[in-house]
Amino acid sequence: MYKMLMEQLLSALRAAGEPTRLRILAILALGELTVSELTQVLSQSQPRISRHLKLLADAGLVQRYPEGSWVFYRLHEGAPVSDVLAQIIRHIPDSDHDILRDRERFGEVRQLRAERAQNYFAANAASWDELRARHIPETAVEEIMAHHLESHAGDMELLVDLGTGTGRMLEIFGHRAQRAIGFDVSADMLTLARSKLDEVGAKNCQVRQGDCANVPLEDNVASVVILHQVLHFLDDPQRALNEAARILVPGGRVLIADFGPHEMESLREDHAHRRLGFDDGDMRAMLTQSRLQIGETQVLSPEASEGAQDLTVAMWQAQKPNEPPADIRKPV
Length: 332
Fold this sequence. Notes:
The chain has helices at about 1-15, 20-30, 35-40, 45-60, 80-90, 95-130, 140-150, 170-175, 185-200, 235-245, 265-270, 280-290; strands at about 35, 60-65, 70-75, 160, 180-185, 205-210, 220-230, 250-260, 295-300, 315-320. It is α/β, with parallel strands linked by helices.
């Protein structure tokens, strides 16, 4: 074990011990970037940047996450040498000319991201606004979710938002956790989410491309999993709930906000809804099948707010047992 740790340490130091790679580490400490974006920030060729990234990844200092035709790179927070990595970055002088120029160009890259996100939002805002006008304000839902998250105050290591969309859940709740990760299959939505998180300076938050039915995380890692207005888009919501249960730590919670049963068939065609809401009995059956202990259920009816609205929002919460159910426990 000692020998392996020494080898990891030496590998990390060798990988970091080069000017361009130090600059890459310094800029990735500010946020994730693609290879193309790194070439803009460092003003170097893509083949050269790619070689440096490979060395840093092989040494366990950075991680790569494919997203469609793009690949995002970020610092490896869970690396065995993460403390050493933090020390290396801390000792890079802020006044260095190259570092100052890199940070200036990093700001330009972020601005381009924000412009792409604004263009996408502008193209889709009308349909989103039309849907939002038909149910209670999201702020009412968010207030209740905030209340449920109070019980995790101070001990939330990882918050996971499945189907993160625009990153709204990370934007308002991410600061409550040491780390927060949002997953979505849509590259356009992730572009918008990154822009939103950049705006609020949410450095502990990140978004990744990932399927709710196959979450790229290990078992028992998340303190809280949020599924906010996502299950009605899925062919098989049960698989998403199973994944939420799998990645939760024992005692961790899942918070679900989705539409109650309705008959608005237009949502299938106009907004790609697969399910026309969820009956409380059906949701409870799915949570039970995921081996989660069902907690409080709340229904936020249209009558609870002003305006002619015709969609009910329901909220469910459930907890992963501290011990596995008797039928799946290993024999003593």
